[in-house]
From TrEMBL, chains A, B:
Pfam families linked to this entry: MerR (PF00376), MerR-DNA-bind (PF09278)
Entry's localization field: Cytoplasm
Family annotation (InterPro entries): CueR (IPR011789), DNA-bd_dom_put_sf (IPR009061), MerR-type_HTH_dom (IPR000551), MerR_fam (IPR047057), Tscrpt_reg_MerR_DNA-bd (IPR015358)
UniProt KW keywords: Coiled coil, Cytoplasm, DNA-binding, Transcription, Transcription regulation
Coiled-coil residues: 80-107
Domain HTH merR-type: 1-68
Protein name per UniProt: Cu(I)-responsive transcriptional regulator
Name of the coding gene: cueR
Superkingdom in the source lineage: Bacteria
Organism annotation: Alloyangia mangrovi
Amino acid sequence: MNIGDVATRAGLPPKTIRYYEDIGLLTPHRGANGYRAFTEQDVHKLAFLARARALGFTIEDCRALLALYEDESRASAEVKHIAEEHLAQIDEKLAQLQQMRDTLAHLVHACHGDDRPDCPILTDLAGPES
Amino acid sequence: MNIGDVATRAGLPPKTIRYYEDIGLLTPHRGANGYRAFTEQDVHKLAFLARARALGFTIEDCRALLALYEDESRASAEVKHIAEEHLAQIDEKLAQLQQMRDTLAHLVHACHGDDRPDCPILTDLAGPES
DNA sequence: ATAGAGGTTCCAGTCACTGGAAGGTCAAGG
DNA sequence: CCTTGACCTTCCAGTGACTGGAACCTCTAT
């Protein structure tokens, strides 16, 4: 199978697939014409990667998950550990983002947003008067 | 004032301050020794930038906000517009992240995380059976 | 005189792609 | 047989917002 079909089936742009080969996430065979020749297993791997990436796992997480995925004798605890770490990071990011949102929403609400120059958003960004 | 003191007062690493100069966010004068000589106004500007960045505004947002900040006759509507756009982006990101969190939390919860190889996390990442 | 802290520039790397140029290959239609 | 256009290849450069490091200069205190 050529890269275009694989791209469609795995839901990843061809560029990204080539990039994944570059960094060693998979090593498709080559046909006589030099084209990459993907197997069903490759497609499966790429779909796995697409899902993991969509869940926000880093490439290095993905590399580890893929290795565990292919290791028939892995312990599920290992996978759970990676996922839990990632979950903790997401929670932290969520809290930060929520905090940012609240602050910003408050500022936006306080700004009348008309032709006049006085603006609580800028005043706040300027910090406490010295 | 030298860059180190400014860094402390504005809460930004020296490297970042130099970078901000590189991209034209400020242009501190130079002393006879070639050192950057920051004014109080520069410090204020950098603190403004630090706050805006902490709120997740992009550098280009910051450039615009800084210009509005320095424009005595700006309309607060302009500032509000930038902030509202940013708020919308944050909301979108929050929703995505929350979705990711829920999915991942569900998977983590479903995985027993022991020595055995079967793992719902990997099963889910592998996608629907074909 | 010297040591150490802090300043300078410039280049390269991060992360995960993405865009574009230059060129090779394939299948279909005239 | 030739052309057209879609698709493939590689390689290089750019994104955003820094960050690390090397090589070198300057200041202050001892």
